Sequence to fold (179 residues):
Amino acid sequence: MLLVQSVVLHRLRVNLRESMAILSDREIATLIDEPKTIPVGLRPLGRLVERNQHRRKDFEVIGASGSGFVLAIRQSMLNPFDFSVILGYKVPGFNTVFRLRRYNGKHRHTNTIERHPLYDFHIHTATERYQKLGGMKEDSYAEVTDRYQTLDTAIQCLLDDCGFISPLGESPLFTGTIQ
Fold:
């Protein structure tokens, strides 16, 4: 499936710092839904590296159609409710990671366009509208959620929402098909 690779770079706009791809909401949804294997060391979550008063770990993931992704885990060492679980897309031809989804802990956030403040656990999603506004992060739009309250349950929500499949899912042990 070369669909994702070909549609991603079909529209470009010039940014003051560099050329950046604008992804449509449909292209964003396609990338989020692209099947991806759960990386080794994520479930259960292995040891996180401590840096700048945060624990963190990044995982490289290749999707079923060859798209490159980064799954990033961050958690404050001072406040366990201050965390992020991020699915990013490695845009071909650019040295950048486009954040598709970000599952955040409880803190204040305001959706700039809507001027809607919130203070709760929330999920950020990249949108074409926020990209076109300029000067904003692609995933600045967020909605409150009650689906998670911890880093571990936020990771599970991302896996459930973003096309991740277990590497054991194809195992004869789980499929019942033994050759």
User: Anything to note?
Assistant: Residues 16 and 135 are 10 Å apart (CA to CA). Confidence is low (pLDDT under 50) at residues 1-18. The two ends are 29 Å apart (CA to CA). The first helix runs from residue 3 to 8.
